[in-house]
Structure formats: structure tokens, C-alpha cells
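Example 9 (inverse folding). The structure is encoded as follows.
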């Protein structure tokens, strides 16, 4: 690991001008390429104390052994040079989009004497006109088959063309009228090239003029009583219209645009692009990338634009590019795109209308692509095995953690504190054993204390089941020492009600397998908590208090994706490409989402049963804003009109109505804890 101060340039060496910089490792390999409006300011950011850098940036600067830069005149030149160097050096710490599949294009080889229409994949070649990309090759072949009766362009390979020319006989397509047979001289090279250009123009979206011309020719042939020619032209027009119908009209103004949408998490990002030409979706493609550098959404958009248009020019770059977020160097990127096209390019975020609706569709495709990518990655047996082995090695476990339980705490400003527990076995979620916990012993934003309580409750149940000290209620419901019905994860719930309000405990039924309700008797090999060092220490302390020393504990801090172990001052940093880190992140995110859903359902139920329901004109959005701002109806009742007006969306008239209604409303009768006889403080919610 190199010390960044060992290769830091001296003060005054770095120019204060636009440029592109390269970080190299000890073997002189380029590991990162970046650009800057001011090289001096940008490079200074890399030589801060490592503790203040983003973990990915810190890894990069400690891997590097030198830095060098090139000064350019403008930001546009910097953008172009950055793209060229990324393509040339393929730096390991730069975002690199990779296609999630190989997309086929419809290509017309205008660089040949007799242009050919064919399906092409891979890198684009000069002198070839491309259309697409298409989702499937068969879609291209269907389109070409319909078009050939109108534009009989050559589709055969070079070998077939030479053989036909030598034999003096065309292939089958030449006999049935779907090829003009330039191989045997039925058309001149100039006539065949004109056919290829008409084909390309039609595919580029200039369809209306050509169809109107055919319609005029059809009417003229009918008037001259050339009915066979008129019928052939009629069939040609119908074939072209069928080819056009294969691409749905999405924008009524015949817009030429590319729409780019993103879906991302802390480790990966998926990009989806819809190519709209003439108001129709002509193609779709997608990429997935690992976030190997610290990059924002705006940065991802800029990288996507570089990847998409870095080797394009002319009409391949549309007049309009719609993105979810504008790049940071908007002016430079717009100038670069305009230079690639040869005319102005509009780069903007759609705000309303059909374009915004279509952008939402592209965003849904991006989200589905990311989910599908993660599912494929997680479902692979070899990948899961490698992930578990990496976790065992990183945490110094005796064996791979085949059962992992993860816990997370959720609340809203200290109210409605809940917890979740999710279970992964063999790297896959076991949803039937997820559990939710209500934390009622205290309120407040104390995640450490909440985590200690949840871990204690879960493993007290485990010890009770292990020692067979539990007693059975009359209806087959497991009861604890205090007589409260509990679910198999240890959460106290109402008698006869399961954790989700359903299942065996809800009906009092006993499963038929062993005559007992299903319980959580299996211990995990690894407990993961959502949080850092304090939460890990609380979980370990809870297990130690119960005398459990054979279960490993770790925490995954969401912001920096660091793995914390009990008693360690420094975290375990897994590589960004580690399958083990990916699995831990997926487990943590699942627990987080499960807890959030439970907390929101409790909050919504509390809001629906609050005195705010009686205030006319106060909708759900503003009710939730009031509760979020004050924390409870009790605190809202104590607020002044001026304080209520501070809530976003609350005018003085509405604030006065809220204050009057709450003042006139009689406080609800205090709820009594039947177990202890204590009066529970009113929080403005339901006492159920």
C-alpha cells in the first residue's frame, strides 16, 4: 500500500487550468483517468487525509504510485481526451459499462461496391449505416423480409455473391423478386446503391414521403389501367406499413431522441436506453456496471453519454437526449455531443407530458434490469458458494456461514420503534422465517439499545426452545413465563395472532408435522446487524449476557460498506468486486426494507386513527408531514399556530383549523398496560 504523500506534486507544480490526469501504479499501469476544470483544485482533493476520503477513492490513491496530467484548452477537449484514454488504458478504477447482452443491429454496408443488408453485432465499422439496436435478431429479419419486396437490396454473403456471379445465375431471392440480382448484372452498381440509400432513408424514419410517392404511382397506374402494377404497388405500401407498425408510436411530434434512465445501489448501476426515431421506439439497449469509483448519479449519466456516443457521429447522435439528471459539466458535454453530431444537441430532463411518461417507462426497465442482474448473480450456486467462503475467510470463521440472520432497527424520529430479522440459508432468502419485532420498552432514537433488546429477545427464545422449558397454551400457542403469546422469533403479540396477523398462531391451529407450531429452534452461524461499531458491540454484549459464544457477529455500515467485528478498532474492508460483500449487502438491504415496511404500516395505522382525521381539508400528505415534523399528535397539540405554519405546505388558515380542532377534541382515555397496570402515555395514536 503506497503512501499518497510520497508522490504528491509540490505546491505550484499543478496548473490551474482544464486538463486530464492519470494515476499509475508501481508497474506504470494506468489505474484511473479523470478530467477537471481546474487540475490544481481537483488533484488537491485526492491528497487529503485518508480518513476523510471516500473508501473507494482511498483505495485508489493508496494503490497508485504516481500521478501525471495533460493540460488542454477547453473542457470539451478534456471530455474527449478522457474518453480516449479510458478506451485506450481500460483503468480498473473507472466506471466501465458492460452490455448486459449482445445487441444486434440492422446494418447496411455502404462501404462496399454492392451494399449488403445484414445483422451485425460487436464494434461498429466505418462506412456502415446501423439501425437499432434490436432486442432480438429475428425482429431484424422479419423487418428486412417485409422491406425487400420494396427495396430488393442484396443480403447474401461475399461467397454466395461470388459463386452466383461465376455461375451466371442468381440465388433464390433473385428469382422471387426479393433481390435485384446485381451479381448477374440485372442492375448497375449505381442503381443498386440508390436502392440501398432508399432502404436506409426509410429505416432512418423518412417514411411519409416515400409512402406518399408510392401511393401516387399506384393511383397513376390504376388510371392507366395497369392494374397488375397498381396491385404490386399496393402490396408494397402494405408491406412498408407493416414494417412501420412493428415500432409503436410513443411521441406524436415525430421526435428523434434517446432516453437514458438509471437504477443504482451502493455497488452497481444499470442503464437503459430507448432510441426513438420519428416518434417510434427503434431500439433498446442496457448496461450494468460496478461502482468501482466514487461516482454520483450525474457522473454515471456523463459516463453513459461517453459510452453511447464516443464512437458515433452524424445522425447516430440525435437532436435531443433526455436524461434523469444533468451532468455536472453540462455545457461541455452539450458542446461535445454537438460536435459529434455536427449540429446542436439538446440535453435535458423531461418535466411533463409524453416524454416524461416515456422516461418513467425507461426507468422501470432499468430497475427491472438491475433486479434481474442481482437475481441471476445470487441464484448461481457457484457464486453463492464463493460468497460464503469469502465471508468465512474475511471474518476468520471456522466454516462457511450456511445460515445468516440479519437485524435492523427502524423508527421515525424515535416513534414507532420496530426491528426486523431476515434469514438467509445457503446464500438464499428463507422468507418463511423472517420476523418483526415491536420495541415498546422505551422510545427514542437509540438504535444501540434497541439492537441489544432485539438480539436478547430472539436468543432468549432460542435458549428456551433448546432447553425445552417453554409451556404450551390450551390452543397450541407457545407462551412465555409471563403468559404472553409469542411468535417463533420471540416477538410478543396478542393471543391467537401471528406476527403478520395470519398463519398457525392466528387461527390457533397446530401444524400437522410434529403437533407443535413452527418455532425458531435453529441458531445461525453468523449474526449481521445493520450498523457500525456501536451496534455490533450491543449485539455481542447481548449474546455474552446469555452465555452464547459460538455465534459470530458482524455489522455492515451502509454509508461506507465496511464490515465491523466486535472489539476491533478498524473495519474489515472487502474488495468492491467481492461476492462476499455483495451477499452481505443483499442480506442487510433485505432486513432494512423489511423493517421500513413494518414501520410505515404502523405509522400509517396510527395516522389513520388520529384526531387529525376530523379536520376538514387536511389530506393524508399534510397529516403525515405534521406527524413527521412534531413526532406525535400530543406534541402537535402543544404547538403554537406559528410553529404549525413552519411545516411545509401548511398555510396559516389551515394551521388555525388544526389548532382549534385539536384544542376542542377531548383527549382519548389513557391506555393501560394490562401486564403491569401502568398508564401508557398518549402519543396520539391507536391504543390497540
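The amino acid assigned to each position is listed next.
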Amino acid at each position: 500500500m503506497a503512501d499518497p504523500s510520497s508522490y504528491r506534486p509540490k505546491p505550484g507544480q499543478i496548473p490551474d487550468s482544464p486538463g486530464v490526469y492519470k494515476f499509475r501504479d508501481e508497474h506504470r499501469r494506468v489505474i484511473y483517468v479523470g478530467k477537471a476544470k481546474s487540475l490544481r483544485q481537483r488533484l488537491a482533493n485526492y491528497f487529503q487525509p485518508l480518513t476523510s476520503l471516500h473508501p473507494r477513492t482511498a483505495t485508489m490513491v493508496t494503490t497508485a504510485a504516481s500521478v501525471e496530467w495533460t493540460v488542454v484548452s477547453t473542457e470539451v477537449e478534456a471530455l474527449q481526451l478522457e474518453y480516449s484514454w479510458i478506451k485506450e488504458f481500460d483503468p480498473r478504477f473507472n466506471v466501465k459499462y458492460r452490455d448486459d447482452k449482445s445487441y444486434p443491429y440492422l446494418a447496411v454496408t455502404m462501404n462496399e461496391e454492392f451494399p449488403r443488408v445484414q445483422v451485425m453485432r460487436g464494434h461498429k465499422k466505418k462506412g456502415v449505416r446501423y439501425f437499432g439496436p434490436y432486442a432480438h435478431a429475428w425482429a431484424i429479419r422479419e423487418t428486412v423480409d417485409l422491406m425487400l419486396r420494396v427495396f430488393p437490396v442484396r443480403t447474401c454473403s461475399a461467397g454466395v455473391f461470388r459463386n452466383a456471379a461465376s455461375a451466371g445465375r442468381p440465388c433464390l431471392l433473385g428469382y422471387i423478386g426479393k433481390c435485384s440480382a446485381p451479381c448477374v448484372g440485372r442492375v448497375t452498381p449505381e442503381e443498386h446503391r440508390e436502392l440501398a440509400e432508399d432502404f436506409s432513408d426509410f429505416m432512418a424514419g423518412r417514411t411519409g414521403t416515400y409512402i406518399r410517392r408510392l401511393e401516387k404511382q399506384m393511383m397513376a397506374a390504376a388510371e392507366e389501367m395497369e392494374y397488375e402494377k397498381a396491385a404490386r404497388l399496393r402490396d408494397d405500401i402494405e408491406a412498408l406499413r407493416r414494417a412501420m407498425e412493428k415500432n409503436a408510436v410513443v411521441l406524436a411530434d415525430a421526435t428523434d431522441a434517446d432516453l437514458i434512465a438509471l437504477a443504482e445501489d451502493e455497488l452497481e448501476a444499470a442503464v437503459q436506453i430507448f432510441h426513438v426515431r420519428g416518434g417510434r421506439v427503434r431500439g433498446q439497449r442496457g448496461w450494468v456496471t460496478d461502482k468501482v469509483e466514487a461516482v454520483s448519479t450525474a457522473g454515471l449519466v456523463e459516463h453513459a453519454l461517453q459510452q453511447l456516443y464516443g464512437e458515433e457521429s452524424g445522425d447516430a447522435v440525435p437532436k435531443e437526449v433526455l436524461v434523469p439528471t444533468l451532468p455536472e459539466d453540462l455545457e461541455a458535454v452539450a458542446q461535445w455531443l454537438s460536435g459529434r453530431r455536427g449540429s446542436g444537441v439538446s440535453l435535458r430532463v423531461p418535466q411533463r407530458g409524453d416524454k416524461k411518461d416515456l422516461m418513467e417507462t425507461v426507468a422501470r426497465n432499468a430497475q427491472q434490469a438491475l433486479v434481474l442482474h442481482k437475481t441471476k448473480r445470487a441464484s448461481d450456486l457457484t457464486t453463492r458458494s464463493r460468497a460464503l467462503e469469502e465471508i468465512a475467510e474475511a471474518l476468520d470463521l471456522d466454516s462457511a456461514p450456511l445460515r445468516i440472520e440479519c437485524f435492523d432497527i427502524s423508527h421515525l424520529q424515535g416513534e414507532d420503534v420496530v426491528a426486523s430479522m431476515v434469514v438467509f440459508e445457503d446464500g438464499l432468502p428463507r422468507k418463511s422465517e423472517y420476523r418483526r419485532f415491536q420495541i415498546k420498552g422505551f422510545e427514542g432514537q437509540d438504535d444501540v439499545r434497541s439492537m441489544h433488546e432485539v438480539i436478547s429477545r430472539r436468543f432468549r427464545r432460542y435458549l428456551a426452545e433448546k432447553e425445552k422449558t417453554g409451556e404450551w397454551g390450551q390452543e397450541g400457542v407457545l407462551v412465555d413465563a409471563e403468559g404472553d403469546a409469542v411468535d417463533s422469533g420471540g416477538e410478543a403479540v396478542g393471543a391467537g395472532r401471528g406476527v403478520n396477523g395470519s398463519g398457525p398462531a392466528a387461527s390457533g391451529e397446530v401444524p400437522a408435522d410434529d403437533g407443535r407450531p413452527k418455532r425458531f429452534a435453529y441458531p445461525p452461524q453468523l449474526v449481521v446487524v445493520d450498523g457500525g461499531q456501536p451496534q455490533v458491540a450491543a449485539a455481542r454484549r447481548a449474546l455474552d449476557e446469555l452465555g452464547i459464544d459460538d455465534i459470530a457477529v458482524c455489522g455492515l455500515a451502509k454509508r461506507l460498506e465496511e464490515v465491523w467485528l466486535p472489539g476491533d478498532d478498524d473495519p474489515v474492508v472487502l474488495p468492491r468486486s467481492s461476492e462476499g460483500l455483495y451477499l452481505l449487502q443483499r442480506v442487510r438491504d433485505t432486513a432494512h426494507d423489511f423493517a421500513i415496511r413494518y414501520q410505515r404500516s404502523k405509522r400509517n395505522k396510527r395516522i389513520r386513527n388520529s384526531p387529525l382525521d376530523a379536520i376538514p381539508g387536511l389530506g393524508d400528505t399534510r397529516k403525515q408531514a405534521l406527524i413527521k415534523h412534531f413526532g406525535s399528535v400530543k406534541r402537535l397539540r402543544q404547538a403554537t399556530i406559528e410553529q404549525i405554519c413552519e411545516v411545509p405546505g401548511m398555510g396559516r388558515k389551515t394551521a388555525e383549523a388544526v389548532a382549534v380542532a385539536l384544542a376542542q377534541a377531548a383527549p382519548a382515555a389513557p391506555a393501560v398496560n394490562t401486564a403491569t397496570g401502568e398508564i401508557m402515555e398518549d402519543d396520539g395514536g391507536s391504543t390497540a
